[in-house]
């Protein structure tokens, strides 16, 4: 799936789960401002698994930091669409986010500042800006990523455990998105379960179970296909509408 669509799916997932609007599920209700800040972070988290490719778009989002992290991640994850695109990878990302979520500070006049979320957001906002083609050169990318991260640190949802939830949602929708492509993902990594030769010639099996051990449910086919656009355009509209409405609700609350 294309990077911009990964980001949109992450934001949409957060809006669906955290917003209390009639069009959302409201399973983890947060304030309107929490919807905005959480959606931004989840959009970035939805690109986190692609840090496993040292020459990919994400690796070049905040140089040289992301290039270094991408090489390290690629080495430990076994390559692209392996460890970071697995259930184990999801668990590791959530655990790391949980640890960072504990890093907070009380600042006079500002209240509780989510320091850990802010630090993680610098990386994630860099990913999102690059995937959405918003930032230009490295200097502008760093500046915008830091500014957005300060906003997230100051106006993060007040709920406990929001950071691992947001990261978990983002990573999960990324894995599902890539599962729906022809290439698929190695969801059970480091286990590499090859399909038996006795059923390898069956047409349906060959589409769902790759020789590499990856699993695929190729509903959208290749990345960037018309089927992907048909699914992701309404998802993107939903995410944008949810964030904009939450932002206006926050503004009305301040002015009231």
From TrEMBL:
Organism: Arthrobacter koreensis
GO molecular function: hydrolase activity
Name of the molecule in the record: Metal-dependent hydrolase
Cleaved signal peptide residues: none
Transmembrane segments: 30-48, 87-105, 111-129, 141-157, 163-189, 229-248
Record flagged with keyword Mitochondrion: no
Domain of life: Bacteria
Lineage, broadest ranks: Bacteria, Bacillati, Actinomycetota, Actinomycetes, Micrococcales
Keywords, comma-separated and alphabetical: Hydrolase, Membrane, Transmembrane, Transmembrane helix
Database matches in InterPro entries: YdjM-like
One Pfam assignment: YdjM
């Amino acid at each position: 799936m294309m990077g911009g669509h990964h980001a949109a799916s992450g934001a949409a997932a957060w809006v669906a789960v955290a917003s209390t609007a009639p069009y959302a599920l409201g399973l983890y209700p947060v304030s309107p401002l929490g919807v905005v800040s959480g959606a931004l972070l989840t959009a970035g988290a939805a690109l986190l698994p692609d840090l496993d490719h040292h020459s990919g778009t994400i690796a070049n989002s905040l140089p040289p930091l992301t290039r270094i992290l991408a090489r390290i991640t690629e080495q430990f994850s076994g390559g692209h669409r392996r460890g970071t695109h697995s259930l184990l990878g999801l668990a590791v990302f959530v655990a790391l986010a949980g640890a960072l979520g504990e890093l907070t500070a009380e600042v006079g006049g500002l209240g509780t500042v989510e320091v850990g979320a802010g630090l993680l957001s610098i990386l994630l906002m860099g990913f999102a800006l690059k995937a959405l083609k918003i930032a230009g050169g490295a200097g502008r990318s760093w500046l915008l990523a830091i500014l957005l991260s300060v906003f997230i640190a100051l106006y993060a949802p007040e709920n406990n455990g929001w950071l691992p939830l947001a990261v978990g949602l983002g990573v999960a929708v990324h894995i599902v998105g890539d599962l729906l492509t022809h290439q698929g993902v190695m969801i059970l990594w480091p286990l590499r379960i090859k399909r038996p030769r006795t059923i390898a010639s069956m047409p349906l099996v060959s589409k769902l179970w790759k020789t590499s051990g990856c699993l695929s449910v190729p509903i959208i086919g290749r990345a960037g296909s018309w089927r992907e656009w048909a699914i992701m355009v309404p998802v993107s509209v939903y995410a944008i509408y949810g964030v904009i409405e939450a932002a206006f609700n926050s503004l009305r609350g301040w002015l009231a």
